[in-house]
């Protein structure tokens, strides 16, 4: 079986381990599937994230364990050349939101997010890539090449219900919620850094597609905080040899989650080329969107791009991770003022939880004098990239949000600050409650003395 992703990390898996039956075909991909030891932690409803689809249905067929069983059945039938297009496999994967919780919370660390990417890539090779998938996966190219057209189309669709219903009928994009709208202007770095910047050295800010085109004020706030902290902020930009020097860099996350592996590899190659000098100089690279930055630190390994991936991963930090590290190791002290706000609610993005970043988030928030907050004990918000925008998944998306996130938000007073670093999370919170959540960079900027 030819795979689209690099599964060599699983080459030695199964040697001396009590695997529960490695499938007959699939090579190292089959080994990645077979790490499941049937502990059924994915069929629990206690604390944590896993497994969002099981939690809303109570049906074991929508758990990680059941998905593993479906893949084993497909990979144990070498005569079925179209196994990845089998409707039974599609049904098993239908409600997987790629939350990454299983890699963190499953005792066997099943990486169903990556398994799903390979599955979708295999299915696309058999059946072709659907138009809706091309639209959602291609956000980096649409925003980078056709920003004005895309912005106009989204605004038109959001303002006229007939157009939203037409898009639902023809494309399967739900008419029951608005699409995120592009900012009036994309992020544009200031021409001059502040005079105080640079005393603590250089950093590179990786402004992802969502911050660049939808929420540029987050990137602007991050720059203000980093410069006040004493860093000279440079911005990630394409390498001189890039075929599209005017299109912003992208981590390729939207392509990965939609199974467009070759496109994801292309975006990742652009990133590696752009950061070659930064890797050599060991310059810290800071990201703002959890799923984007952490994809570079994790999924990049699966794209077969060589040892540079490991070197890059050592220099990648989420905004709050970097600040917390510098505070602990290098004496960083931000001069902050009280914000005179009531106790806030903090919702963690699934990837922040899966990669243990929430500790840094809590640490940095504790620097604001007199500021108190409570972490919402929630699973996935349910938006999960394009999942909540798909007509057939709208109900499931909202059911995930209603597990604990939206009830907690609604129970809070109207002046309670809401903090959520994930773009999808903020969109879901606003749609489900009418309340706006803010990125931690905005809060810290407001607290600068």
From TrEMBL:
Keywords in alphabetical order: Iron, Iron-sulfur, Metal-binding
Residue span, 4Fe-4S ferredoxin-type domain: 87-115
Keyword Metal-binding belongs to the record: yes
Protein name per UniProt: 4Fe-4S ferredoxin-type domain-containing protein
Organism: Methylocystis iwaonis
